[in-house]
UniProtKB/TrEMBL annotation:
Family note: Belongs to the polypeptide deformylase family.
Taxonomic lineage: Bacteria, Bacillati, Actinomycetota, Actinomycetes, Pseudonocardiales
Residues binding Fe cation: 87, 129, 133
GO molecular function, one term: peptide deformylase activity
Catalytic activity: N-terminal N-formyl-L-methionyl-[peptide] + H2O = N-terminal L-methionyl-[peptide] + formate
Alphabetized UniProt keyword annotations: Hydrolase, Iron, Metal-binding, Protein biosynthesis
Gene (name only): def
UniProt keyword annotation of Cell membrane present: no
Keyword Hydrolase found: yes
Cited HAMAP family: Pep_deformylase
Name this polypeptide is given: Peptide deformylase
Length: 167
């Protein structure tokens, strides 16, 4: 399998690698992603957020939950929505983010069978957000410049930003 299942940290600004082989390691990754996203307050989780540089994400929005391996956004509506968006990778920060009002992602399951997920409102936002993670983007990258500057300042002032830093 292409990618990083060894636990080495994956940089969230890097594009994730496509999954090339379905095996027990992929099943284990999907199981972990699903178990984590089903915890309260979680809408989606991409493999790079847990240090695995593979194109896989899970989602849990409005009672719908699942996962997609090698997802690609194949359809975005011209109509947009703007609403508060947050991320497990930048905790406690929520900023208004513009997204397509409807989105469709196509990929495969762990047995390499085709999957297509279409969503509106929050599910559309989630599908776009998680696909962005696989492409090395955070939602902060999509903010208007002045709002992005404010968000980055708030991130730098957060306790979690400095965890693990020496000195």
């Amino acid at each position: 399998m292409t990618g990083n299942l060894s636990g080495t940290r994956h940089d969230l600004t890097e594009s994730a690698d496509s999954v090339t082989r379905a095996d027990h390691k992929l099943q284990s990754l999907v199981d972990d992603l699903l178990a984590t996203v089903l915890l309260p307050g979680r809408a989606g989780l991409a493999a790079p957020q847990i240090g695995v540089g593979l194109r896989v994400f899970s989602y849990n929005v409005g009672g719908l939950h699942g996962y997609v391996v090698n997802p690609e956004l194949v359809d975005l509506s011209e109509e947009t929505q703007e609403g508060p968006e947050g991320c497990l990778s930048v905790p406690d920060l929520w900023f208004p983010t513009r997204r397509a009002a409807e989105a469709t992602v196509k990929g495969v399951d762990v047995k390499n069978k085709p999957i297509s997920v279409t969503g509106t409102k929050e599910l559309a936002r989630c599908l776009q957000h998680e696909t962005d993670h696989l492409n090395g983007m955070l939602y902060l990258d999509r903010l208007e410049p002045s709002l992005r500057k404010e968000a980055l300042r708030e991130a730098r002032n957060s306790e979690w930003f400095w965890r693990g830093e020496a000195g």
